[in-house]
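The material for today's practical consists of a large collection of protein records. Getting from the letters to the tokens is the skill we practise here. To make this concrete, we reproduce a full record directly below:
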Amino acid sequence: MQHVGVIDQQTFDYLLSALNFQLPTPNFQLLLIIKNNNIMSKITDLLGDKAAYYLDHTCKTIDKSLIHVPSSDTIDRIWIDSDRNIQTLRSLQTILGHGRLANTGYVSILPVDQDIEHTAGASFAPNPIYFDPENIVKLAIEGGCNAVASTFGILGSVARKYAHKIPFVVKLNHNELLSYPNSYDQVMFGTVKEAWEMGAVAVGATIYFGSEQSRRQLVEIAEAFDYAHELGMATILWCYLRNNDFKKDGVDYHAAADLTGQADRLGVTIKADIVKQKLPTNNGGFKAIGFGKTDERMYTQLTSEHPIDLCRYQVANGYMGRVGLINSGGESHGASDLRDAVVTAVVNKRAGGMGLISGRKAFQKPMNKGVELLNAIQDVYLDPAVTIA
């Protein structure tokens, strides 16, 4: 794509408002082209010398024609034939129809449950304003997110003021780290009915696949999701892996494509409407650890070493994209956060995923910088030049 000029957001907004009803259609389209080039220029600048590696890659593993790519008609094209009731479809559309990514099929969600999972002090020390739940919701609104996902306490404390202004996703369970010694077990912190009563459009939950308690969690969350659907709420599952034996010979396989892909498959089996997963960092977890059943074609034909192909395998395990994949933004690393977030968004979108759920990178900095990061993520999904690989 040829760059015809770069303008800042304020200049574009001024031109749009000043000229929208005065220019004929071709000139208005030119203005949109300039806008799209402006977005792509920022993306390529952030990707640096890796721009071609991410933006020009062609997936030769699972062909893109097999993927159900997110679009403005996702509900009508994918979900209308499912067994989800009308209220659940409306809840899904409420999420898909909100924020800067409204009606694109893609989502940008702000998750804040680290105050339980990691401790509040460790999570909010970089910016103490987020001890106050209202600022968390404000960040999601100012950042143009489709939804805000958080705890019963955080969302419940401001529900009457904000539940009608941005879709709420209530996280049902958590692994609290105050018990000693620490263990990995997600326990319920409230009920599906409580989430519904506070006006939430969706519930979220985590299963630690591979952990000692994973089968109990699987049954527990399957029952919770069934009731959530009965009440008309959408469901989002954090399909995470937890087992010390998933580290072998100094290599951590908790984010291996084969293991995370199977975790996603289990998640969609209990009717998660969206699955959240870490971006793959390697592959071959089943073989290295020596368990499960594999076929060598999983590694030679269905995946490659390219991150987009590894993520494509995750998408495939979500019924070829029928159940959308959102990848997590991960922890904050400071100066590299903006670039890291854009890389993750590009990989997710080009693999066939439906968006990002990024928390610490956004709230562990001044609010204006958090908004900037969230907008940079969303710009990847708004840019038509970033296509499925």
Notes: The chain is about 45% helix and 15% strand. The longest strand covers residues 202-209. Residues 251 and 288 are 9 Å apart (CA to CA).
